[in-house]
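Pilot study result, target chain (217 residues):
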Amino acid sequence: MKPIILHAHPGPNPWKIAVILTELSLPYTIKVWSTEDQKKPPFTTTLNPNGFTPVIEDPNTDIILWESGAIAAYLLTTYDTPSHTLSFRAITSPRDSALLFQYTFFQATFQGPHLSNALYFLRNPNAEARQRFVDESVRVFGVLETELEGKEWLVGGRCSAADLVFVPYMWSVPLIMGDLAKELPERFPRVYEWVGRMSERKSVKMVREERKRLTGL
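Predicted structure:
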């Protein structure tokens, strides 16, 4: 199998794709782009006209794909069969298969964007706007705390992509949330226990070290 190319930036979002690739034991290489270089050619003319990472190039199927949720779905449906290491077989487990995508979309549309915007308004001060996104981020923690009641994993009684896509943004919570981050483990113990379990996985440790090596974060 030819290595998949993952185009990334230093921020959290692309690294959930690296975790999925690592968990599935797929060969891949990473090219890290600066925020500025993502917004102009050759990135916008050859990889993603929208000017964001992650993007993957898969020479095995001759596809260039952008949007992290679409990439995660592609990797799971293309390469996580028949083993279903990170996913669930739709024919025999239709409920769990649907719930997996519910949570991956929830991460992509709520956890990631709200934390990203909270960080943006930390660096570009607007107290009212920042507070809105901090509050929304805390609300997302609350949703996850509720969903984890009585269980260790979000779907199917085992760790899956539904869980792992949330991890990289958790690495940045201390930076994004500031002093409030110190209160979150006590307010949302199930969330932090869940993140702790994922953080012990070999794939998560490897990707976090790889990100640090490539970006310094």
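One observation from the pilot: The mean pLDDT is 97. A full batch analysis is planned for the follow-on phase.
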